[in-house]
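Annotated sample (chain length 151).
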Amino acid sequence: MEVEPNAIYIVLYARHDQKFHWALCIGITTTRVLKLHAANLVGPWAFQEVEETITNSINCCIVYKLGMLDGQTTTVHVREILERIPMAIPKGSKESMFSCRVWAKEAIYKLHNARIVDCSDADKLEETLKAFGAAQLPLTEAGRGYQVIKS
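Output written by the structure step:
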């Protein structure tokens, strides 16, 4: 399943513990994305940026389109916004522990406030994504790929 160049996605990757790794991705081509996310595989939480061929991902589960880059907003601009998000629970949050999901929700709010995406309720979107993820997870774990959802 292909992605759209310049589309902004929230992506859930299966972790095989009934949970997901959350990332923000921007389509580069119909098969490649720029993955922007909080990761802690080697040490403390840190912002990471990596290009990947999403169509080859064995654990990509949900690819949810948030919006499109317009002619004036670039991936560099998005990255500059996202790399400034602290690796901590946002002030006023109900979260008890920092995670990639917490970071991704804050990324959505930051991009909404910058008028790059239109999503004023990341908590509601989280519930939607969890439902899509729960439905898709058995298929992804069986090697049947991921689902692309256009908001």
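Annotation: Residues 7-150 form one domain.
Annotation: Residues 122-141 form the longest helix (20 residues).
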